[in-house]
């Protein structure tokens, strides 16, 4: 450490000397006022307002505008180490999973529905893909998903 301090005390290095010489040569080439902040605010014309929002036909409703969402779940549903089966017919695969008002409901192919309290909206959001369609009625959505 002391060796480095003594070396610096001897004078500027060759690289420092070259930098100082280049700085002195280029100082004359800088235009006057360059790098000096202006005291006056520069007024420019306002930019044109561009409506960059999606056209109406490409917009999808937000979650609070929907009564619910549903997705197909073809494989068996296993929760807490046990396979979920329909309470009425015993079916254990090919579910429709419905998310509505912070509740999750399972619907089997036969049309039986049961609330599943072990699932929540966060689980649904993690597993659901993007919506491919919106429907005005529950029956329209069932037809769309083949139930």
Biggest sheet statistics: 4 strands, antiparallel
Q: Reading side by side through the largest sheet, how are the strands ordered?
A: 1-4-5-6
Work out the helicity level: 10-25%
Order of helices and strands: HHEEEEEEHH
Q: How many strands appear in the DSSP assignment?
A: 6
Shape: elongated
Indicate the radius of gyration in whole angstroms: 34 Å
Instruction: Report the sheet-strand fraction.
Output: 15-25%
Residue runs with pLDDT of under 50 for 5 or more positions? none
Number of helices: 4
Mean pLDDT value: 82
Termini Cα gap:
80 Å
Q: From the helix content, strand content and strand pairing, which structural class follows?
A: alpha+beta
Structural description of this entry:
The termini are far apart. The protein has helices at 2-9, 14-27, 121-127, 138-144; strands spanning 69-73, 78-79, 82-83, 95-100, 103-107, 113-115. The protein has a domain at 67-145. The strands form two sheets. The chain has a four-stranded antiparallel sheet, with no helix packed on it. It has a two-stranded antiparallel ribbon with strand order 2-3. The model has no long low-confidence stretch (mean pLDDT 82). It is 24% helix and 16% strand. The chain is an alpha+beta fold.
């Amino acid at each position: 450490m002391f060796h480095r301090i003594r070396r610096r005390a001897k004078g500027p290095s060759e690289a420092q000397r070259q930098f100082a010489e280049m700085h002195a040569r280029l100082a004359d080439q800088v235009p006057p006022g360059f790098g000096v902040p202006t005291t006056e605010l520069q007024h420019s014309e306002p930019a044109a307002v561009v409506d960059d929002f999606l056209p109406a036909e490409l917009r999808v409703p937000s979650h609070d505008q929907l009564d619910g969402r549903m997705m197909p779940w073809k494989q068996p549903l296993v929760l807490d180490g046990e396979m979920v089966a329909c309470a009425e017919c015993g079916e254990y695969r090919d579910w429709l999973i419905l998310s509505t008002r912070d509740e999750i409901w399972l619907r089997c192919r036969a049309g039986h529905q049961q609330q599943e309290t072990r699932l929540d909206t966060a689980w649904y959001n993690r597993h659901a893909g993007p919506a491919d369609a919106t429907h005005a009625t529950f029956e329209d959505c069932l037809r769309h998903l083949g139930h």
